[in-house]
Design a protein that fits this description.
The complex is a heterodimer.
Chain A (H helix, E strand, L loop, with lengths): L2 E10 L9 E9 L3 E5 L6 H8 L7 E6 L2 E2 L5 H6 L1 E5 L10 H5 L1 H5 L4 H14 L4 H4 L9 H13 L5 E5 L7 H18 L2 E6 L2 H7 L2 E6 L2 E6 L1 H6 L4 H18 L3
Parallel strand pairs in A: 3-8, 3-9, 6-7, 7-8
Antiparallel strand pairs in A: 1-2, 1-4, 4-5, 9-10
Helix pairs in contact in A: 5-7
Chain B lengths: L1 H42 L1 H16 L2 H12 L3 H25 L3 H9 L4 H31 L12 H10 L2 H29 L6
The chains are: A alpha/beta, B mainly alpha.
C-alpha cells in the first residue's frame, strides 16, 4: 500500500504559548489505515489534524499527502480533496440538509442532476431517508442525525483522506456506539484513510487500526491497539491504559 | 377632513410620494455606507474604533440640529435633508452589521474554509447570509427613524408629509395636523411591517 500521509519533523508553535503545540512529529500513514489520535485536551491532537488541511501552517517540517508536499499546492485544492468533520458538526444553518451535503460539489460546479443523485446516495449511505431529510434544516435534526449529515458532506466528493475531530464527542453513548460501528463498516467498504481525533481511550482502541498517542505536542507511541496495551512505551501511556482498566473494573463489580 | 382629501387629494399624494422618495433615497445611501463600513470594521479591527466612534458622535446630534446645520452648507431642499437623514440612519445599520458578522460562530467559518471554500466564498455564502437577519433589523430601525424624521425635513423645504403638519401648525388647523401626523405614523408602521416580513424570510431556517 502506498503512503497516504507523511509528517517530516513537523513543529507548530502558537504565539504566546509555552511549548510547542506540535513538537517535532514525524510519522507515516499508509493508504486505507484508520488512525485514531488519542490524548488529553491541549495535547496537540487537533492541531495535528488542522495541519493536514492547512487550517494551520507548520513552523518547520513538511507534510506530504500521496507524495505531494502540501505547502506547494493551492490551499483550497488541498482542502477540497480532504473530508473534514468536527465535533460541533458545523452544518450551515441556512442551508438545507441537501444543500449542506452539496456544498463542495456546488463549489466544483457539478451539474444539478449529478449533485442530486450524489446527495441522495450519501443520505442513504449514512442511514437517512433522502425524501424525508433532503429538504430539512439542520435545526430540525437530532445531534446524531446532524453528525450523519456532517459525515455525508465530508464524503461528498469522495476524498481519499478523512479528518475527523472528535465527531462523536457530543453525542449520547448509545447513538455514539452505533455511529462508531457504522463508521467502521463504512471504512471497510470504502478503503479511505481516516484520521480520527478523540480523548476517549475506548473509542480510540475500538476504531483505530493504529493509534497515535500524544502528550504535550509530542508523539509518544504510534502502534496497533494490541501492541500499545501489551507494551506501553511511556509512563503517560501506561497511566492511560491503567485508567481504562480501572473503568473496566468498576463495571465488573456489578457482575 | 373629507373635504381636504376631496379638494387636495392630488397634493396629498404628491407629498406622500415625496416623503417616500426622500426616505428611500436616504435609506439606500445609508445602507451603501453602513454595510460596507461594518464589513471594514470587522475585517480591520483597528479601524473599528474610529468608524464607530465617528458615527456615534454624529448620532448624538439631534436630527433637527443637523437639518438646520446643513442649510448654510447645502442650502435648502432635498439634498441637505437627505444628508441629515443618512447621518441619522447609518449608525444602527453599521452597528448591526458589525454585531451580525461577529455573531457568526468562529467554528462555522473555520469549517467553511476547512471544507474548501475560498475566503470570498466564506463571506458571501456563509458569513453574510447568517448575519443578514441582524443587518436587516438594523436597516429596519434606520428606516423607521428616517420615515419619522423626514417629517422635519419639510422645515428646510424638502417637502413630504411634514408640509401638511407645518401648515397645520401655522394655520391652527387640527384637521391638517391629524392628517399629517397619522399619515406619518401609518407610513412608519408599514415600513416596520415590511422589514419584519423580510426578516422572517432570512430566518426561515430557524425553527421555533
Amino acid at each position: 500500500m502506498s503512503t497516504a500521509i507523511a509528517f517530516n519533523d513537523v513543529t507548530k508553535t502558537f504565539p504566546g504559548a509555552n511549548g510547542n503545540a506540535v513538537d517535532h512529529v514525524s510519522l507515516t500513514i499508509r493508504e486505507g489505515e484508520f488512525i485514531t489520535i488519542l490524548g488529553s485536551s491541549g495535547c496537540g491532537k487537533t492541531t495535528l489534524l488542522k495541519l493536514i488541511n492547512r487550517l494551520y501552517e507548520p513552523d518547520s517540517g513538511s507534510i506530504v499527502l500521496f507524495g505531494e508536499d502540501i505547502s506547494t499546492v493551492d490551499v483550497v485544492k488541498v482542502r477540497r480533496r480532504i473530508g473534514y468533520v468536527i465535533q460541533q458538526v458545523g452544518l450551515f444553518p441556512h442551508y438545507t440538509v441537501g444543500e449542506n451535503i452539496a456544498t463542495v460539489p456546488r463549489l466544483l460546479k457539478w451539474e444539478k442532476d449529478r449533485i442530486r443523485a450524489r446527495t441522495d446516495e450519501l443520505l442513504e449511505l449514512v442511514g437517512l431517508a433522502p425524501d424525508e431529510f433532503r429538504d430539512r434544516y439542520p435545526d430540525q435534526l437530532s445531534g446524531g442525525q446532524q453528525q450523519r449529515v456532517g459525515l455525508a458532506r465530508a464524503l461528498a466528493v469522495d476524498p481519499k483522506i478523512m479528518l475527523m475531530d472528535e465527531p462523536f464527542g457530543a453525542i449520547d453513548s448509545i447513538t455514539r456506539e452505533k455511529l462508531q460501528d457504522e463508521l467502521l463498516s463504512l471504512h471497510r467498504g470504502m478503503g479511505k484513510t481516516i484520521l480520527f481525533v478523540t480523548h476517549d481511550i475506548e473509542e480510540a482502541f475500538k476504531l483505530g487500526t493504529r493509534v497515535i498517542l500524544m502528550n504535550e505536542g509530542k508523539l509518544l507511541q504510534f502502534d496497533t491497539p494490541d501492541a500499545i496495551i501489551r507494551a506501553p512505551a511511556d509512563p503517560f501511556v501506561q497511566s492511560l491504559v491503567n485508567s481504562a482498566r480501572a473503568k473496566e473494573q468498576f463495571w465488573e463489580n456489578y457482575l | 377632513m373629507q373635504s381636504y382629501f376631496q379638494s387636495s387629494g392630488d397634493r396629498f399624494l404628491a407629498m406622500l410620494l415625496a416623503h417616500i422618495q426622500i426616505s428611500l433615497l436616504s435609506l439606500a445611501i445609508a445602507v451603501l455606507i453602513g454595510v460596507p463600513a461594518g464589513v471594514l470594521c470587522v475585517r480591520y479591527r483597528r479601524g473599528q474604533k474610529y468608524i464607530t466612534g465617528l458615527f456615534s458622535v454624529l448620532r448624538v446630534i439631534p436630527s433637527l440640529a443637523i437639518l438646520l446645520l446643513m442649510v448654510p452648507i447645502l442650502g435648502t431642499g432635498t439634498a441637505p435633508a437627505v444628508v441629515a437623514l443618512v447621518i441619522l440612519a447609518v449608525p444602527p445599520i453599521l452597528m448591526n452589521t458589525v454585531a451580525g458578522l461577529e455573531g457568526v460562530a468562529p467554528f462555522l467559518l473555520e469549517t467553511a474554509s476547512g471544507i474548501g471554500m475560498e475566503p470570498r466564498q466564506v463571506w458571501t455564502r456563509v458569513r453574510f447570509p447568517l448575519a443578514a437577519p441582524m443587518i436587516l433589523t438594523g436597516v429596519k430601525t434606520a428606516a423607521v427613524e428616517i420615515v419619522a424624521s423626514a417629517t422635519l425635513a419639510a422645515k428646510i423645504g424638502a417637502g413630504g408629509l411634514g408640509d401638511i403638519i407645518f401648515a397645520g401648525i401655522g394655520l391652527f388647523r387640527t384637521d391638517l395636523l391629524l392628517i399629517g401626523g397619522i399619515s406619518v405614523a401609518l407610513l412608519s408602521l408599514a415600513t416596520g411591517l415590511l422589514f419584519s416580513a423580510a426578516e422572517r424570510i432570512t430566518m426561515r431556517h430557524r425553527t421555533a
